[in-house]
Write a structure and sequence with these properties.
Length: 151
Amino acid sequence: MTPRGLRGVVEDLRTDAMDAPETLKRVWCGLVQARLLGLRLATADPRYRKLQVNAESVEHQLARDLGTSAALAGEPLALPTGAPTPLPLDQLQEAVDALVEFSRTARRTMLAAAPSATQWDDERVLRHDSKVIGELGAAWLGQRTSYRVDR
């Protein structure tokens, strides 16, 4: 995953007409891509490792919550792990910008789709987790402190 690739996901979220279930599915796919990019960023430069740890708690909360939606019920939602190939140093800031943009766009898209949800579990996740996904951008901007003492 590259910053350009995540920006493509953002563009799709921004421009495609989607119902509530499709929005939840696209947000999940985008979250997986954001996770991969964040891992590459954290591997490239130790300054971003702390931000990745803070973002990781949000990613896991989102994965758990998305799994409670009607649209994704029964789907095996597992976030990628491991140490991927580090990003080139000239892409670090671009990656942070793409991660923040994904968070903001997903939040707006989720809020816009919530009123059209026909299943309560989808509406609940779209409304509640629009706030949670906003925390993902805050984590990458260094605005979300860690619960861990060593971070």
